[in-house]
Design a protein that fits this description.
Helix content: 55-70%
Strand content: under 5%
Number of domains: 2
CATH topology of the largest domain: hpI Integrase, Chain A
Radius of gyration: 23 Å
CATH superfamily of the largest domain: Intergrase catalytic core
Number of strands: 2
Distance between the termini: 69 Å
Order of helices and strands: HHHHHHHHHEEHHHHHH
CATH architecture of the largest domain: Orthogonal Bundle
Number of helices: 15
Largest sheet: 2 strands, antiparallel
Shape: globular
Structural class: mainly alpha
């Protein structure tokens, strides 16, 4: 009988037989699981279930696989033995706290830490439902929260994780694409939620500029990033409701114009999933758009036009860039600093 494959080098085409899986194959090829093949098969089943039943995106599956690999590696070193289902069944709250402490010491951000804990909770609930093991120790742990006194803008990492996790909250594929398109539009173009929801299909251009009617009936032109156009086109192709130019661009599940309360509820779910602060709202994506542009060298006048502000002072108060960012921008752009 051939020797079992080395767990540290486990690949989809080996013991797991997942080389033909278009999603799990690349995920497990990129992130080998440091555990024996029998446990790796069970964990691959969970990842497959996440993809099929929960419709987790490949990006989310890859993130969960990395979190899982880090957890397994920690347990192997922490307990000094190979990780098995028996080891997982015997873990207590102190073991999970030790893992979270170790990841924090490695510099993992709080949103990423919250996602890692969410992945473990999901895994252990699935293991319980499938009668593999029964361990409720995670129920006593609280999801890490960000401090209340934080800027209203999301960090670049938080914004990226928010978009990546958006589709995973919806069971209906076209609704998931709608939410991703909407949040991508808010962050990629700096729109107010009301401005986005007021758009009709006839307002959606096939070019590179979107015309927005903002506060006070003031019109402005907003450049479209390719990623925004691709997300909107993907949503419209999947949307089951046909419509002409006067049809709302963003529709609810019954075909009417999407209600802002539905969007706010989705953002609250994302906050809970990622451990984001209460200030992480759809409007925070607009705030993040402006803050991140300014942090990367965008000038206030241009950002003012993109946001549709009547005065520059409003833009200055809105972005609230920290003094360190302003000092860096000053050093890099002022002629006498060169």
């Amino acid at each position: 009988m051939p020797a079992s494959p080395d767990a540290s080098a486990l690949r989809p085409g080996d013991a797991l037989g997942l080389g033909g899986d278009p999603v799990l194959g690349p995920v497990l090829a990129a992130v080998p699981l440091p555990c024996p093949p029998d446990l790796a098969r069970v964990l691959a089943d969970w990842l497959g279930w996440m993809g099929r039943e929960r419709r987790a995106s490949p990006h989310t599956l890859l993130a969960y696989a990395r979190d899982l690999a880090a957890f397994l590696a920690f347990l192997r070193d922490y307990r000094g033995e190979e990780v098995s289902l028996g080891v997982l069944a015997a873990l207590d709250a102190a073991d999970f706290r030790a893992y979270l402490t170790a990841r924090t010491n490695e510099g993992l951000s709080r949103p990423s830490l919250a996602r890692a804990l969410s992945a473990l909770r999901n895994l252990f609930r699935w293991l319980d439902r499938e009668d593999h093991i029964h361990n409720a120790a995670l129920d006593s742990l609280r999801t890490p929260k960000l401090p209340q006194a934080v800027p209203k803008a999301l960090s670049e990492e938080e914004a990226a994780e928010t978009l990546a996790a958006t589709r995973d909250l919806q069971d209906e594929p076209w609704v998931a694409k709608r939410d991703l398109a909407l949040f991508t539009l808010l962050y990629g173009c700096g729109l107010r939620l009301g401005e986005a929801l007021d758009l009709d299909r006839g307002d959606w251009p096939r070019g590179e500029v979107l015309r927005i009617l903002g506060k006070g009936r003031k019109e402005r032109l907003v450049p479209l990033l390719p990623v925004v156009s691709e997300a909107l086109d993907d949503y419209l192709e999947a949307c089951p409701f046909p419509g002409g130019p006067g049809t709302p661009l963003f529709l609810g599940q019954r075909g009417a114009r999407l209600n802002p309360g539905v969007v706010q509820r989705q953002m609250r779910r994302l906050r809970a999933l990622l451990g984001l602060p209460e200030s992480a709202t759809p409007h925070a994506l607009r705030h993040s758009f402006a803050t991140h542009l300014l942090a990367h060298g965008g000038d206030l006048r241009t950002i003012q036009e993109l946001l549709g502000h009547a005065s520059l002072s409003t833009t200055q108060r809105y972005t609230k860039v920290d003094s360190v960012g302003l000092a860096r921008l000053h050093r890099e752009t002022h002629p006498r600093a060169r």
